[in-house]
């Protein structure tokens, strides 16, 4: 019985060290993480214009931190959403919209979204940023009406 226990411990120990050595050979992914104390840089700020018959306003900022480009939108005085509705942000190039986050307003019609662009998205030359009122979240293309927009 004692011999079986010693053999089991030996096999377990050897397996642990073999797996640990295999992990050393694996390469870590190349991920850029900005230090916590690195300042946020504002690249561009714009006001989104309300469509006719729409109340509300929004300011969009493109900010950079550690190589990451973020879209930060603060919207105010929008109509409150009902049920599953959300406000969805779109980056548009030509006639092709690309989803860039969504938000739900608080009881005062205010909402915020922060969307971090991928490297591919950062390389695009977007024409327009728009916000639509969507019947539900996570749409690949707009289903609802545009409420705010701005040329980029």
Structural notes for this entry:
By secondary structure, this protein is of the alpha+beta class. It has 2 helices and 8 strands. A hairpin with a 2-residue loop joins strand 2 (57-65) and strand 3 (68-76). The termini are far apart.
Average of the residue pLDDT scores: 82
Number of helices: 2
Distance between the amino and carboxyl termini? 75 Å
What's the assembly state of these chains? single chain
Strand content is: 35-45%
Biggest beta-sheet profile: 8 strands, antiparallel
For the largest beta sheet, what order do the strands appear in spatially?
A: 5-4-7-8-1-2-3-6
Number of strands: 8
Helical content, roughly? 10-25%
The sequence of SSEs as H and E is HEEEEEEHEE
Radius of gyration equals 24 Å
Overall structural class, as computed from helix and strand content, comes to alpha+beta
Question: Spans of 5+ residues with little confidence (pLDDT < 50)?
Answer: 1-31
Instruction: Characterize the overall form.
Output: globular
